[in-house]
């Protein structure tokens, strides 16, 4: 399975609806992969039919990856593409090029997505029809009836396919751009997906052996449908065995003919899941590693950056360890096909949370780096301006090397900024003899604008340049930079004890950091879902062998529940990153958490605690086995730190 379309390792979620869009398309694409995996573990063979169908599925994944990036599920429902609200304008009525371009891209993307999903479901349906036709020929040769297990999906997928194609027809029609049509499309997709999941569950629940034949006396078990003993298929065509008196054993032959030849595939569910989990973790590592360029280019790095970098590395490593080295590591799931399917479905919240968590880790690392760098920058800049005693009327101040190199590291030219100030203060090229209150205001405005410029340059260094800033914020920034900007004047005349959120400059910065702050609100919840999902997955996989495996499962769930309590940090009167000192006690705890640089260290500490608990339980499990084999005597706690004697 490729990484789900719309992958955001190199981007951000600008608002909650971006997250909803990503989750929606991840769910759809994940099920495309999961349903194909369920098919492959039963029926895949290395023939031209399956190779061709696999190729077509990969083409569809490519189409989805190209069209779902940046697509908004609220398009034509809550707002029109390129607008902040629903606009009844048709394409023929549009005159704004930017609005026309966004509407055109959204319309084409929506149509390609609808067609790709319908085509994918049709290919999956044809695969099961192919299996059914082959089963009918086999049944005719063996004089058996085709098991109901093989008839469920060919018939049932016809219903889900009709829903997906109906959604495609609605999308391709003019109704697709209406509110009702856009909603109907998602309703049909949801109904189709739910029906497919239920149909696959029914198929996995049914037995291969036809119930009308009854259980065979010599079968090991009739309870386990997917692991019951069945002779290899060639035995169905063997000659009848001869009894001791030289006569054929008709009863044994009859029983053998009643056995349906269960298809065998070399595709293992565990291997597929481990493979895609490795890909997801690898993509996350790649996204986090991509931030190192910003770290190298940054002018100032505090020790908080290195702490968060180490925390990010610990989180990624322990995510891989907890999945691949858990109590069910390197073992295929036991039990019925339905249990295996449940184990597969539980990977959905696990994988989705991993992708969102690693994206959140990357963004929190960048946010911490930005805030710490910006803080140190302004502490040093104010000190330098004070120490250098810059004279706005002296042209030689433009050559001040100390400030020049300081701003050059931050992407600004001191000479340009100083000359801009001097041009505002001079009249016809000459400086006034006496400083006035108006000149003092000009200097204050210039300084406040320079403050924002430095903040934006540092932001662009870490977040990927000015292209990541939306057009609305860009307009407000340009208004702030104007010589007689009303925005700056309003900021300048705010009372001393005004809330930081009242300043236009702080509003701009809050807008830029909104997606990273939003991630901090829910990153603990994502880590909790991962640990809880791991615990439940381990239990569904197979029954724990001893109390120590039970301990690992329970500690994972309990640690996840403990992390959920961190979501309470979102409660608070002031939902802003900066508040006045006298209002800090009313500020939501999540913002204090961010400004203490503790988001990633907290998560890393939680994973490390779980890691050491599991190491201790693994050690105790090994000691218990050694004591059972006679290699150890006495309580386990006394031998915990002692090496075991090798058996002679």
Automatic annotation (TrEMBL):
Q: Which UniProt keywords apply?
A: Membrane, Transmembrane, Transmembrane helix
Q: Which InterPro entries match?
A: Low_temperature_requirement_A
Q: Which residues cross the membrane?
A: 20-41, 48-66, 152-174, 186-203, 279-299, 305-324, 344-361, 522-541, 553-574, 594-617
What the entry lists under PANTHER family is as follows: CHROMOSOME 16, WHOLE GENOME SHOTGUN SEQUENCE, LOW TEMPERATURE REQUIREMENT A
**Protein known as:** Low temperature requirement protein LtrA
Organism (species): Rhizoctonia solani
């Amino acid at each position: 399975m490729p990484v789900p379309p719309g992958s955001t390792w190199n981007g951000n979620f600008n608002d909650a609806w971006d997250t909803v869009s990503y989750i929606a398309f991840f769910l759809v694409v994940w099920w495309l992969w999961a349903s194909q995996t369920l098919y492959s573990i039963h029926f895949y063979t290395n023939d031209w039919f399956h190779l061709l169908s696999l190729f077509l599925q990969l083409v569809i994944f490519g189409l989805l990856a190209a069209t779902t990036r940046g697509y908004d599920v609220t398009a034509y429902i809550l707002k029109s593409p390129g607008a902040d609200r629903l606009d009844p304008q048709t394409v023929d009525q549009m005159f704004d090029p930017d609005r026309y371009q966004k509407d055109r891209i959204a319309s084409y993307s929506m149509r390609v997505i609808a067609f790709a999903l319908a085509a994918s479901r049709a290919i999956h349906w044809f695969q099961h029809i192919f299996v059914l036709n082959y089963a009918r020929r086999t049944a005719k040769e063996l004089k058996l009836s085709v098991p109901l297990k093989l008839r469920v999906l060919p018939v049932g997928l016809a219903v889900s396919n009709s829903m997906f194609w109906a959604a495609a027809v609605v999308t391709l029609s003019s109704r697709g751009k209406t509110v009702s049509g856009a909603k109907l499309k998602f309703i049909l997709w949801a109904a189709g997906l739910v029906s497919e999941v239920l149909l696959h569950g029914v198929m996995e629940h049914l037995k291969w052996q036809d119930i009308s034949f009854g259980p065979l006396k010599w079968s090991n078990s009739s309870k386990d449908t997917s692991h019951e003993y069945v002779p290899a298929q060639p035995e169905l065509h063997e000659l009848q065995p001869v009894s001791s008196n030289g006569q054929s054993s008709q009863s044994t032959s009859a029983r053998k003919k009643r056995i349906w030849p269960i298809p065998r595939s070399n595709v293992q569910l565990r291997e597929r899941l481990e493979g895609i989990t490795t890909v997801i973790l690898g993509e996350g590592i790649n996204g986090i590693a991509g931030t190192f360029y910003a770290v190298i280019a940054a002018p100032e790095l505090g020790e908080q950056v290195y702490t968060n970098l180490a925390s990010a590395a610990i989180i990624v490593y322990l995510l891989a360890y907890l999945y691949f080295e858990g109590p069910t590591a390197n073992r295929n799931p036991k039990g019925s096909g339905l249990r295996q399917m449940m184990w597969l479905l539980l990977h959905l919240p696990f994988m989705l949370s991993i992708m969102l968590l690693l994206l959140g880790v990357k963004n929190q690392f960048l946010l911490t780096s930005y805030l710490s760098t910006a803080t140190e920058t302004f502490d040093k800049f104010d000190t330098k301006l004070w120490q250098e005693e810059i004279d706005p009327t002296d042209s030689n101040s433009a050559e001040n090397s100390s400030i020049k190199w300081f701003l050059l590291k931050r992407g600004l030219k001191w000479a340009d900024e100083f000359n801009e100030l001097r041009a505002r203060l001079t009249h016809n090229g000459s400086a006034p003899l006496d400083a006035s209150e108006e000149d003092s205001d000009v200097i204050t405005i210039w300084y406040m604008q320079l403050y924002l410029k430095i903040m934006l340059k540092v932001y662009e260094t870490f977040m990927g340049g000015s292209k990541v800033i939306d057009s609305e914020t860009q307009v407000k920034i340009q208004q702030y930079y104007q010589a007689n900007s009303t925005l700056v004047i309003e900021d300048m005349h705010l009372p001393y004890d005004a809330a930081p959120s009242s300043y236009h400059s702080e509003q701009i910065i809050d807008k830029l950091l909104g997606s990273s702050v939003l991630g901090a609100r829910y990153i603990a919840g994502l880590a909790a879902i991962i640990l809880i999902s791991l615990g439940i997955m381990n239990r569904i996989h197979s029954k724990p062998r001893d109390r120590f495996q039970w301990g690992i499962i329970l500690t994972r769930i309990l640690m996840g529940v403990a992390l959920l309590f961190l979501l309470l940090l979102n409660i608070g009167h002031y939902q802003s990153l900066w508040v006045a000192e006298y209002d800090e006690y009313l500020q939501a705890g999540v913002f204090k958490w961010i400004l203490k640089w503790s988001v990633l260290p907290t998560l890393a500490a939680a994973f490390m605690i779980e890691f050491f608990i599991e190491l201790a339980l693994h050690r105790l499990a090994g000691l218990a086995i050694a004591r059972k084999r006679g290699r150890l005597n006495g309580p386990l706690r006394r031998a915990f730190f002692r090496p075991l004697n090798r058996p002679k």
